[in-house]
Amino acid sequence: MNLQNKTADWSVEKFAVGQPVPRTEDPKLLRGEGRYTDDINLQGQAYGWVVRSRHAHGVLKKVDTAAARAMPGVLAVYTGADLQAAGTASFKCITPFPNRDGTPMKKPARLALAIDKVRWVGDPVAFVVAETVAQAKDAAEAVELDIDPLPSVTDARAATQPGAPLVFDDVPNNLSLDYHFGDAAKVEAAFKQAAHVTKLRLINTRVVVSAMEPRAAVADYDSATESWTLHSESQGVFGLRGQMAELMGVKPEKVRVLTGNVGGSFGMKAAAYPEYVCMFHAARQLKRPIKWTDERSESFLSDSHGRNSDVDAELALDKDGNILALRMNGYANCGGYLTFVGPLAHTLNAVKNAISVYKTPLIDHNMKCVFTNTTPIGPYRGAGRPEANYYMERLMDTAAAEMGIDPLELRRRNHIRREQMPYKAPSEQTYDSGDFPAVFEKALQVSDWNGFAARKAESKKRGKLRGRGMSDFLEATAPPNKEMGGIRFEADGTVTIITGTLDYGQGHAAPFAQVLSQRLGIPFDRVRLLQGDSNELIAGGGTGGSRSAMNSGAAIVLASDKVVENGKQLAAHVLEAAAADIEFKGGRFAIAGTDRGIGILDLAERLRSTKNLPADLPSLSVKLAYDGAPSTFPNGCHVAEVEIDPETGVVELVKYSAVNDFGTVLNPLIVEGQLHGGVVQGLGQALMEHVVYNDDGQPVAGSYMDYGIPRAADVPRFVSADNPVPATTNPLGVKGCGEAGCAGSFPAIMNAVVDALREYGITHLDMPASPQRVWQAIQGAKKRA
After folding, report:
1. How far is it, in rounded angstroms, from Cα 424 to Cα 436?
2. What pTM did the predictor assign?
3. Phi, then psi, of 711 in degrees rounded to 5
4. Under CATH, which number does the domain 212-302 receive?
5. 133-163, pLDDT tens digit by residue?
6. Residue 79's closest CA among 135, 32, 28, 140?
7. Helix (H, G, I), strand (E, B) or coil at 125
8. 306-478+630-784 in CATH: which number?
9. What is the pLDDT of residues 83-118, one digit of tens each?
């Protein structure tokens, strides 16, 4: 049988890198055949529910579980003392930064269940296990918490002031980290010499991550092997396995993590959570599988939130508008505890991304990372990249207005040019590739920049204000992580790619298969993808920081090369020739200068049916660990147009155009989908999303009844184009795309909002540009006029 040609419509050209191949996951998902964590049920499982603090801050004097334990169906109620006695470890924050003075940052211990104090509304205090979910919930209501309330603080800037309530008694001024990057003296000198200085206070609002699938997990314990299996959504099973092993004080081999389909994450599901530790403990104690599924109202409290910083940003320019230096002094809200990556987004990630595409000789970044009585902050799509671009783009528009320079011309004067590549930025990043001016000019064409006046006039006839905003952006994607490249030839004639990244909505299967098909000539529909089983992996950095295509793509390339190397030896044996005489092309091994050969899948089938192969022959299947690709620098220019109803303050995004450089595009259909998703999330933050706390630390928005997220009706038709300049630092030339939509969108949208309001003399408005906020700004401007 010739497996190589079994699929009649398969062709290299149709499924080659660069072709818009549809997502291979979609038919199954659309038929309802996806397997998400809550779909998993194990025989004999019990159900867990978390008892959470209803106070933002207080001394936890007593947790009375007696009544709850006596309720029908209840199997156990665990407290922080129980977990501490069992030897569970504190959650780790891996952020390594020292304070400005060289002292270590404050990393208070965080146990899965609170013991001494509660530090935000939702802080886990007890874990109830029962025969049914309803019984577990009822018993949770019966757990009595004796909490002596304390004053709370929710704002990061306010938390550093004298007399502010202390979240941790041994952390003065609530300061976890006093971060500094740059040469403050040189920057200060540049500001003194500047012909113009633009200053803005910029609030980067707190948002709920709001993944479509709430978190869930099923934990099972095997007493014979003293090991756990965790079924859970994640962003990478290899990393989650390591975290859980450390929390339970065991070797990684004692934990297996399995992840099926995942309904979104955006950074939030990357780390271990307290619920998983409670489940591991309960499964071991009760010798039964334990299932826990979050509910939306609970997830508003239990899932890490995103963004949340308050920055005084300054830009120094000479008389011609050339940038001399950028300075940022700010406050980052960490919440009640540090998450796995802590304040990384607001510190190093902001530094790497703030200068964007502009020649900026100097940077000085100062960020006080502060504990407050709020849900802990974790990474959210972009994790410091979009907000850093926001700071720069708002400064650029404001500087142009203050100096009387056209905002396009100001950007043109400051663009880093292609001939300057590689470009050493003051962020200590080296941009390897890019043509920022070309992207910029193409964006003007794609957006019909010159036709704006007519559109503005038409809007005015309807009583609407129209504004346009531009945002150049650049992202430094995540640094290298070891990644597995595995290629396994299966008995049924398919080929499995094994890699440690994880698809939680991106659509990895099609582009990874395109890479493998092009490299090895294997029919596209015979390629499978395995990512969600930690036992299959020898390495895995997970998915995050827009690096999957670089890391997994390069690992697939290296593994493919190893398959060809091994295959030549194996084909030589089968064809009775010397390995040096074997060539590989188009999926076929052949003896050079002859028509004798064998297809790669035919070779795999022959090897499976051959007994007693020589021991010195390698396997056609391979496993290897790739050290990881360096950061890439996707970039682009986005243009937004909004209409504002001055009578109601309602803002509508009516036109959106984007030109991007994502390097080599593996699959343009999937890349465009990623772009659209990021743009919509940026729109949400710009116009409607905002987590608000009252004076007692209670969150005001606890569900979609009072927390706004974008709907389809809020989104116009997107127009996008590519201007690719391949990266030079990975074999495929790819650059990340997953977070770019956020990086370009909310700066462009907010610039457009301010542009529309400029006729009232309004020069700045903080996110979100909600109807109330816009209406109040207009009314205030009218009173001042």
Report:
1. 15
2. 0.95
3. -110, 175
4. 3.30.365.10
5. 999 999 999 999 999 999 999 999 999 999 9
6. 140
7. strand
8. 3.30.365.10
9. 999 999 999 999 999 999 999 999 999 999 999 999
